Sequence to fold (145 residues):
Amino acid sequence: MGSDGADAFADKGENDKKADVHFDPAPGWVSLQVWAQEWLERRVSGESTRRNYEGFVQNHLVPRLERKMLAGLARRDFEEFTRQPHSAGAGLAVSTVNDRLMMVAAMLEVAVVEKRIWRNPARCPGIPGGPVRGGRGRDSHVGRG
Fold:
């Protein structure tokens, strides 16, 4: 199996064909930057939370993953992302990175619900400090409905 999930994606595609399930990848060809901005605009939150999330998106998420399309995001991107804010001297505490990764996972979960992507690469239990460890993150409900 490929480490970037390509084999798993291909297997899922084949299984979906057999089950007559169709997934149109075209809606996923929007940049992470555009999707993050759209998600932030649609999200109801307090002013302080909104500022914190916008700052994280603009200062950390977009600079590292801005060229990625939603459909092109892989688990590896978030494994590397969780290490970068610490090693690059960005001054983010581990707890802050974990909290913001929960926000990113919630943002991408909305993309799954809206069928822009077929799975959430930020919601992988194997990501160091990832948002899911045996249960739902506290912001897993954010943006639904």
Q: What stands out?
A: The two ends are 35 Å apart (CA to CA). The chain has five helices and no strands. The helical segments are 6-18, 32-42, 47-65, 75-87, 94-113. Confidence is low (pLDDT under 50) at residues 132-145.
